[in-house]
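**Paired protein data**
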Amino acid sequence: MALLSTVRVFLYCALWIFSVVLLGLTAARIHYTENLSPNDPLNDGRHFYDPVVAELLATSILAMLWSMFAIHAIHTRRDYRLIHTFAAEVVGLFILFIMWLVGTAIATSFWGNLGWCHQFAPCRLLTALVAIAWVGWVLLFFLLSASLIHAVVNRAWTEPMHGHLYPRDSFAPRETSEYRGSRL
């Protein structure tokens, strides 16, 4: 169980880092499109913003906040309310997973093949934005899978998300676990 918590904290830290990077890339893209020079060939020099970039910006902020909450809950072994259970973690990760997938898929459909314009900084920025978005989605996939598998296999939906309250649940069969017998 300690290994699962350690892996999850590591994945949450990585998700936080990639969320910060995505936040920076989306902010740079919004800054660029909102401050176009009149001579810029993009959109004839008229200011605009890409809605998918705004969605990825919001998603990265939510992922940063959720990562900090989850790291704190796992590290300090919080188990006070429903929000600290595996069910709440799976719901939160699922919402982020869907938001991140939608934003990443739309961004990929718009800017998936920008190899022809890599000499321009805005194209490199969009390529990096799409790449970081996919890496973040993969991290969310692994986090969601690990939490979901643990919750289903151990019937731990209402257990604290730190996973340390009943440490032998993952190793002992149901009939031999003294901890499970006390919860029935």
